[in-house]
Structure formats: C-alpha cells, structure tokens
C-alpha cells in the first residue's frame, strides 16, 4: 500500500520550494521505508534547488536525516521495524573494485531505492542524494540505513548523515590528523566547525579557524579552535604561518571550495603537509597553480568524499562518543523548524545566522 505524506519539493531551478503531497511506495526488495524524525538543512539542498547538482527536477529535498524504520522489503535481514537509524547517501555495494580492495568509502556502485517516490499526479521525484528526507516518510535502500543508539536525539543524530560527518571525517579519515599536529580550517560553517571538532578529537594542539564572519569565528572557538584569523583583515597564509612557527600547518582543510581558499590552503600548509578539499565546488570553477610548486612542496592534496566515512563504522562510534559526553553535537543545531520553514532556512544559511536549521517531524 502506498503512503501519502507531505514533503518539500524543488520544482524548477531557482524557484522557491513548496510543500507538496507525495506518494511513497511500500519497500520492495532491498528497500526500507523510514519515518523521518529530523533532517538538517544543508547547502547541498540549496545547490539542488538552484540546479547546481543536475537538472533532474522535480527534486524531493533533504538528506541529513534520522528516523525510525517502518517497514523493510524482501531480502533485508539486518534491519527491523522500530530500528532507529541515521540515513546515509553512500550505501556501499561491497563488490566493486574499491570495496574489494578494502576501501569501501570510495565505493563506485553505491545503492539507492529502485522505486520512485512521486507527486500526487504520478510525476517521479528525484530524491536529494538518493534520500529525500524533507518528508514525513521516505523510501531508501536498506544499506542507506545505519542503526545507532536510540538514546541520541534525532535532531543531533541526523547531522551525522552529511555535514558533521563530512567535517569530522575530513580531519580524521582524510587528513589523518594526529596527536600534536597543527590544523587550519578555512570556512567555519557547519562542515568547517565539524572539522575543528574532528581535529580536536584526533589530538591536534594548534587548531586555526579562518573565516570572514566574526560570529562564525566565535562559534569556531566554542567548538575547539585555539586561534582565529579574520580573512577580511589579515593575510591568511602569513597568519597561519606565524601561528605555526613560520612553517605552515600540518593539515589545512578547505571547507569552502573556491579557487581562492584552495590556493590559500595549498600555500598555508607546511612542506610535505596535507591539503584536504571538503568544500564542494561548483562545476564551473577552476584553479591554476605553478606545477613546480606542486612538485617542490611535496605532501598530499586530497579531496574528501563524505569525510571518507564508512557509515556502518563511523556513525555508531560518533553517537557513542556523543552519549559519553566526549563529542558535543548539540551546538551545531541552531534552530528547529517545520517543513513549511525550509525556504526561510535557506535565507538564514545565506546570511550566516545559523550553523544548522533542523526540520523536526
């Protein structure tokens, strides 16, 4: 039996989103029906609305979510109705060449639900990142559901589904920050602040936050930054070098994803240091660097897909740290809102007044 629910839809590029009646089918083989409890408003949803991801409109937005499994399809043996889950957008296949060589975080054949969710008139919807969780219920592949401790509040747990995991993973998994390292983070929104939290968890002793917004720099300090640099009034590269004994940081994380910040990250790292790009660039952006500098500086330049996470490994671990009081995720939740407030949440994201607006259902 199909389910009729309310969901937030982007109908055409650049237009305001609307709450529409959508139809969600019962789960088929390998699928799960999830009652969504909370879903964060992420920049990626805004990119979808603006047509910056692809043009497969209409989109059912929302992907940074937690909820409760309502039903599972044939062949699903590791989930049961009632399980509390965080949704992920990289459900690994375990059979592609990346998975077979022991690097499932690079999986090239990730799974999504096979059946479409639709508008009331039968128009198929494209769920954001294969999830579509700005809705009362959503249909996903069972591998997109990661069971976690149900004692964690949904509005906190759901943030691991994208931004917080991307930032923490950029520091720990991709950047491989170690004890005593120096780390600089360019861009102190939700992902950048999560990278600061990840660097602190990994034992970095110097953590430098860089942003143009004084309010965001205050948030970054509350998250664990030991130093701040206002990029509007200071030379970013020289400031990072001064704070690291003239050498540059061991790891520099670009959480913005534009040519200017990428170049700053490249030149602000120590010789043989690591640059991590976790901010998502738009398809039109290019960067130019002297090839001799790429050669002479050594080290590594890495992109971080989803914080190079393995959801089945990382989500439960981070929730356990949260419940133990060792990882405070609550400051990431600036406000809780309803489905009708998503467009206003995009405006708040633009003006920098929130780290995360979270839709609760």
Automatic annotation (TrEMBL):
Pfam families: ADH_N, ADH_zinc_N. InterPro entries: ADH-like_C, ADH-like_N, ADH_Zn_CS, ER, GroES-like_sf, MycoS_dep_FDH, NAD(P)-bd_dom_sf. Its EC number is 1.1.1.306. Keywords: Metal-binding, Oxidoreductase, Zinc. Its cofactor is Zn(2+). The keyword Cell inner membrane does not apply. GO terms for molecular function: mycothiol-dependent formaldehyde dehydrogenase activity. It comes from the Bacteria. PROSITE patterns: ADH_ZINC (PS00059). CDD domains: Zn_ADH_class_III. Residues 14-359 form the Enoyl reductase (ER) domain. It is an enzyme of class 1 (oxidoreductase). NCBIfam families: mycoS_dep_FDH. Belongs to the zinc-containing alcohol dehydrogenase family. This is S-(Hydroxymethyl)mycothiol dehydrogenase. It comes from Haloechinothrix salitolerans.
């Amino acid at each position: 039996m199909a389910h009729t629910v309310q969901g937030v839809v982007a109908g055409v590029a650049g237009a305001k989103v609307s709450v529409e009646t959508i139809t969600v089918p019962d789960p088929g083989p390998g699928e799960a029906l999830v009652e969504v409890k909370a879903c964060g408003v992420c920049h990626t949803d805004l990119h979808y609305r603006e047509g910056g991801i692809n043009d497969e409109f209409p989109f059912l937005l929302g992907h940074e979510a937690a909820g409760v499994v309502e039903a599972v399809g044939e062949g699903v043996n590791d989930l049961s109705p009632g399980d509390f889950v965080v949704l992920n957008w990289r459900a690994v296949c375990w059979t592609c060449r990346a998975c077979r060589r022991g690097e499932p975080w690079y999986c090239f054949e990730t799974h999504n639900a096979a059946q479409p969710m639709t508008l009331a008139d039968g128009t198929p919807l494209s769920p954001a990142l294969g999830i579509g969780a700005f809705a009362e219920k959503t249909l996903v592949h069972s591998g997109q559901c990661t069971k976690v401790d149900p004692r964690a509040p949904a509005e906190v747990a759901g943030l691991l589904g994208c931004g917080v995991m991307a930032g923490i993973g950029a520091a720990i998994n991709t950047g491989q920050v170690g004890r005593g390292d120096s780390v600089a983070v360019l861009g102190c929104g939700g992902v950048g602040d999560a990278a600061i939290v990840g660097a602190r968890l990994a034992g970095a002793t110097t953590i430098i936050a860089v942003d143009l917004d004084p309010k965001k720099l205050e948030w970054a300090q509350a998250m664990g930054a030991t130093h701040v640099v206002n990029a509007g009034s200071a030379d970013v590269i020289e400031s990072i070098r001064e704070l690291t004994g003239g050498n540059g940081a061991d790891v520099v994380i670009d959480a913005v994803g534009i040519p200017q910040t990428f170049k700053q990250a490249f030149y602000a790292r120590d010789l043989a240091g690591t640059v991590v790009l976790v901010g998502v660039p738009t398809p039109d952006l290019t960067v130019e660097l002297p090839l001799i500098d790429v050669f002479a500086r050594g080290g590594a330049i890495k992109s971080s897909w989803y914080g190079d996470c393995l959801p089945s490994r990382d989500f439960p671990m981070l929730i356990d740290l949260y419940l133990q009081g060792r990882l405070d995720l609550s400051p990431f939740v600036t406000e809780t809102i309803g489905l009708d407030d998503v467009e206003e949440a995009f405006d708040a994201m633009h003006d920098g007044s929130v780290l995360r607006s979270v839709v609760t259902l």
